Amino acid sequence: MYEVRIHSRGGQGGVTAARLLALAAIRDGKYATACPFYGAERRGAPVVSYVRIDDRPIRVYSQIRHPDLVLVLDPSVMDVVDVLSGMKPGGRVLMNAGEPREMKGFPTFAVDLTGIALRENLVVAGSPILNTPVLGALAKMGIITMESAKMAIEEMFSDRRNVAAAETAYRELVA
Amino acid sequence: MLTVATGNKAVAAAVKQACPSVVAAYPITPQTEIVEQIAEYVTSGELKSQYIPVESEHSAMAACIGASVTGVRTFTATSSHGLHYMHEMVNWAAGARLPIVMANVNRALGPGWNIWAEHTDAFQERDTGWLQVYVASVQEAYDATLMAFRIAEHESVLLPVMVNLDGFLLSHSMQPLETVEIGDFIPPIRLPHAIDTAHPMGYGTLTGPDQYFKLRWDIERSMRDSAGVIRQTEDEFAKRFGRRYDAVEKYQCDDAEVVVVAMGTLGKEAEVAVDLLRNEGVPAGSMRIRWLRPFPRLDLSGRDVVVIDRDYSFGFGGVIARSLAATERAKPFSVIAGLGGQEVTYDDIAGFVRSRRPGEEYWFGVMPDV
After folding, report:
1. pTM for this one?
2. Beta strand pairing call for B161-166 and B174-178
3. Inter-chain touch A26–B265, beta carbons under 8 Å
4. How many angstroms separate the CA of residue A33 from the nearest CA in chain B?
5. In which band, very low, low, confident or very high, does the pLDDT at A175 lie, cut at 50, 70 and 90?
6. Which among A58, A59, A62 has the least Cβ separation from residue B344?
7. Taking CB atoms and an 8 Å cutoff, what residues of chain B touch A65?
8. Scanning every residue of chain B, which has its alpha carbon at the shortest distance from the alpha carbon of A35?
9. Which chain A residues have a beta carbon less than 8 Å from that of B343?
């Protein structure tokens, strides 16, 4: 089972990112569950959501303690949350940032999702859309196929710029 | 067709296909998505139902009762405080023998104010005469909702059915969902005591002790008969659509010396704990009780039993643990866990089994570790 923990802030689309990733994995023919953790969130507060991907039906509903991948949509949450908590040995980190940074030896990947969204003019209510471009980066990392990433985005959003943004993120991911 | 959905959306998808004539509902977290989705189906014309947006849950159930007694299919959904606000009418629906289907998204009761999963809300309605089923996946939420209509409306049952799903854990989790072409799986509803203006009858009139007593027995008789109807419906569902359900879902039980009994998503999590324990050489199994009413028989003889209750009856105990002590003469290690959405992992469940103390009650996270 492959386990992904997504860190973001309320309103940044972390829940939708989890659902898109699960949908893409399902389109790859896998089983997947996207479980957002709902607390007493308000906009801007640090939040987490979870995605599990497996070849068999998923029977676990508890929170992910030992992720294979940590996705940080908003690096500023790292000031208040230990995003590496419980990380599996060999686990990886994907950050919304221009350059990868040192994360206690865990292989770290970076892509400027905010910049991509702004360039594509993917902005809703003043916030750049991060959850569609990130699928491109996750495809580049081999977690889903790019074909299924595009399929998932098209199923949930009609605006073609979302797919274009994912393609850009695929190209611009830095290890 | 393979699609993806949350537990809430899966329930709404099944309701769309069952096509109730009337849906009356009031939104409440974490159920709101069900009624929002149904309202959307009605607005878009995908569902030809009369949608009644009422001002309270008491009215939601009252409207369903009023509609149902005319002989049409009805649906509502609620959760926690909403369920208890309609409590009077919940009793009425069963007593009036109306096959209403309701989804209840299990959520704790306040105070302290809490929106997360717990089964006490529905357990408190267990003596009302409603059939109750508890599901543990998005697919099962859909499948059980479809079957609920057929079971409720069966001539040997004619009792309302409550489909329960864990708040957030299931209502808001997204998983694959295989929808089916239902064809004639749910026959047209036929209520023998429907209001017929050509043949006026009295409804809800004062009923003396002798007649009242007979009506109560009639509910119990149908409740007993419903077990067979449930089995028949689940068999027919498996035959048509390939997915098999039973009153109790057993996992690795054949040679199990210790069995974990749980409900809802914890029942699935328990299977993972069983895998862990089996790897350690512990011959464990699990049973997930799906139907709370009618209460099923479990084959527990000669085994250690660990019951996880995501509920509590104050001054008495965990409802499932105490029920099994009565019906199966079990002497379970009674674990109270997951109240108010408390996090319980498969590691925790494996721990309950390793350090079980038959006959004792243990509150997880409150009492010192077992």
Report:
1. 0.96
2. unpaired
3. no
4. 5
5. confident
6. A62
7. 345
8. B173
9. 62-63
Question: In chain B, where does the domain assigned CATH 3.40.50.920 lie?
Answer: 249-363
Do A35 and B169 count as a contact with CB atoms less than 8 A apart? yes
Residue A41 is predicted with a pLDDT of 62
Q: Which of A57, A59, A61 sits opposite B169 (nearest CB)?
A: A61
Beta-carbon separation of B172 and A36 below 8 A:
yes
**Chain B residues lying within 8 Å of A53, measured CB to CB:** none
The structural domains of chain A, with segments of one domain joined by +, span 2-172
Pick from B166, B172, B269: CB nearest A60: B269
Tokens of residue B148, six digits:
């609920």
- Confidence check: pLDDT of A10 > 80: yes
CATH architecture of the domain with residue range B2-184+219-241: 3-Layer(aba) Sandwich (3.40)
CATH 3.40.50.970 in chain B, residue ranges: 2-184+219-241
B345: chain A residues, CB-CB within 8 Å: 60, 62-63, 65
**B66-124, pLDDT tens digit by residue?**
999 999 999 999 999 999 999 999 999 999 999 999 999 999 999 999 999 999 999 99
Q: Summarize pLDDT for B121-136 with one digit per residue, the tens.
A: 999 999 999 999 999 9
Q: How far is A110 from chain B (nearest CA, A)?
A: 27
* CATH number, domain A2-172: 3.40.920.10
* Two tokens, residue A39: 């607390």
Cross-chain Cβ contact A60/B137 below 8 Å: no
Q: Name chain B contacts of A33, Cβ cutoff 8 Å.
A: 173-175
What's the pLDDT tens digit per position in A111-157?
Answer: 999 999 999 889 888 889 999 999 999 999 999 999 999 999 999 99
Q: Write down the architecture of domain B249-363 according to CATH.
A: 3-Layer(aba) Sandwich (3.40)
Q: Give A36 to chain B, closest Cα distance, Å.
A: 7
Confidence of residue A40 (pLDDT cuts 50, 70, 90): low
Tell if the CB–CB gap between B269 and A63 is shorter than 8 Å: no
Low-confidence ranges of chain B (pLDDT < 70): 369-370
